[in-house]
What does this fold into?
Amino acid sequence: MLRICYSILLFSLLNSINSQDLVLGDYIPGNGLVFASSDDNHKSVLRGYSQSLFESKSIVFDSSEINDENRYNRFRARRVRLRLSGNQLNPGFSYRLQVDLAQSDAGDGELSGVLLDAWIGYKFSKKIKIIVGQKATPTDNIELQMASNSLQLPERSRLTSAFSSIREVGVFLDGKFKLGRKTLIKPMLNITNGDGSNAISNDFGGLKYGARINILPLGTFRNFGQFRQVDIVRELTPKFMIGINGSYNVGISSRRGRGNGDILYMNNLDEYSLPNFLKYGGDLLFKFRGFSLIAEFVKTKAFIPEDISQRVRNNGTVSTSFNGGVENYIKGRMMLGSGLNIQGGYLFKSLISIDGRYTNLMPDEYSFMNNSAFYNRNKYYTLGISKYLFKNYSYKIQASYTYVDDAIIRDVFEVEYQGNENILRLMVQIAF
It folds into this structure.
């Protein structure tokens, strides 16, 4: 399916370029290179940005057996992204192709692969739009609907990294309806592969069914503010959005639906038998005169088939041993539990922003989040300061400090130690 989407997208891009007399518009830093046809029927925008990150982590252990801090420092190109997007008013087609040149060798549980977005959309009317391809799924928490170049802090919350699937391949249906004078109702439905991004290999599970509804009681945000974290336009009137989301993944073969074939099980007939994965949550976004607030809640559950009797090892062999029982063993390899994230900040007229965030992960009794080899870290406190050079998200300098309470770490001898983690980040972003 993904190859078909790529072909359709490429054909649409070439057709629009060849069929239109595109003219380069005035350049504004951060807004990209804008090409528009003489009749304004077609517009294409090429954007890009780079984020350079310095990160320093240290763990202060409670145990007297460890005298030194466990520390490391690193520089990295956090994101280097190029995005080509456009639309054609008649007929109502739109498209996006986005790559990240810094993700070809990702780590720390991040997604790997250059390709991010590859989709084409068709707008049936002002109220309904269908999208086919790979894109961010609306069934994740609201932070995942917000552009990475507009984050209040150098990194997204731990809630996002613990539970999100980020991008998926499938069909997405978006609606937009007005209720009364101001209220907007934006329902979204999607059917996806449930295997995360760039899933081209054999599909071991079924499909993922998801939905989201966003309610904007006071009307829409200015300048696409519902997709940005910082209130850089300083909303003149209070604006907020309430969202509810849920998804059901039939036959998941990874910890949270971000991979395909990573974790496999079989029954006595040597047929694949995989657990189902339920995720639901709610979130809130508020902005007014430079102040912004985001609150998010996520809950996950697993449903284990009764016929599972074998597990597939990484080398392809099978085993019938399940420490603690079949159900508990399987749940112990999945991201199960709940999480809460609250963050807010204030942008001064000087374009200096002061921000804070609290994240609390609450794993189930049997969950991979309890695995100390993964770092069993549940409470995160973050303070940050940012300087924006323009009244957009193009050029900025950000610094943050994160305190992680009660980190549990397992050493090479399988001995667990408890301590507190300190994380310092400094990031510089440039964009065109």
Summary: The longest helix spans residues 2-19. The chain has a mean pLDDT of 89. Helices lie at 2-19, 158-163, 326-331.
